[in-house]
Amino acid sequence: MDQWDPPGALTFHAKRNAWRLRVFIVSISLSYPAIHYLQNLYLKSLTQQVIPGSMVNIMSILLNIFAIMTAFFGIYLGFKESVQGIVFNIIKRIIPEEKLNTSTVSVVIILFLWGWVSLDFSIMLLMQLAGPIFGLVACLIPCYLVFKVPSLSNPRSVSNYYVVFYGILLFMSPFLKFLE
After folding, report:
1. pLDDT tens across 6-26, in order?
2. For residue 13, how many C-alpha atoms fall within 13 Å in the half-sphere facing its CB?
3. What's the confidence (pLDDT) of residue 19?
């Protein structure tokens, strides 16, 4: 056993279950990561000392896949909810609410994003063009409600002006892009 092995490292090699990595991370002392940081060793190399074979590589690939999928679905669902709310709010004034179909909005969003990527437009351009929607929905409308609705008087503070300032910047971002 090496002098830098964490306490109980022998039990890690004896047991081959999914709890090894969790127990390993919890059981290491505070000096252990600091020493390995100074030696330029990373968590992956530390875990490969404890978990033999290619299991660490498989777990890191799975972690990367799940992280990318989680980020994609988080952005997609947020975008879908905001667009669906805006579109339904406008359309339900013309068409009765019973005739509205939520899957149509999802298909239009997927087709829009697919077309955007297929035509090789920059994703940053999409973010800059969507800035006014983000600024309006995430900054300006909540601050307006905080100042106008009496039951929302608790969160009134100077920081609301900070949020309004960034909402205005987000709202102006496409115009600033065209000034480049």
Report:
1. 554 444 444 444 444 445 555
2. 11
3. 47
